[in-house]
Amino acid sequence: MIHVIATIELNAGKRGDFLAEFRRLMPLVQAENGCIEYGPAVDVPTGLPLQDAIRPDAVVVIEKWADLPALHAHLQAPHMLDYRGRVKNFVLGVRLQILQPD
Q: Which pLDDT score is estimated for 36?
């Protein structure tokens, strides 16, 4: 299994617009071969001293894939190419962490 943590930094005030597009995409991705989990998460203020500062203009996508070939296929899926075009004006940058259970 492959875990993906994608941190998406957004233009100020665009998180709602981004999430609307992301929610349109989710059923298509969740139907892909090898997709185990795929969904967005946002920071929650907790008051815990070790927590990083809350990021109002960020979304973290938490993904699980059966294997690396499934992840590669996902990245090239037509609906992903279309989605990237729809959100490109909202996104400042993306950071990926690709992990596997140990």
A: 98
In a domain, 27, yes or no: yes
Q: Considering its fold, how many domains does the chain have in total?
A: 1
Q: Which DSSP category does 54 fall into?
A: P
Taking only the tens place, the pLDDT of each residue in 22-79 is 999 999 999 999 999 999 999 999 999 999 999 999 999 999 999 999 999 999 999 9
pTM greater than the 0.85 cutoff: yes
Find all residues with CB under 8 Å of 8, minimum gap 6, and list them.
18, 58, 59, 60, 61, 91, 93, 94
User: Which CATH number fits the domain that encloses residue 19?
Assistant: 3.30.70.100
> Which long-range contacts (C-beta less than 8 Å, at least 24 apart) are formed by 27-32?
28/77, 28/79, 29/74, 29/77, 29/79, 29/80, 32/70, 32/73, 32/74, 32/77
- Helical segments of the chain, H only: 15-30, 68-76, 78-87
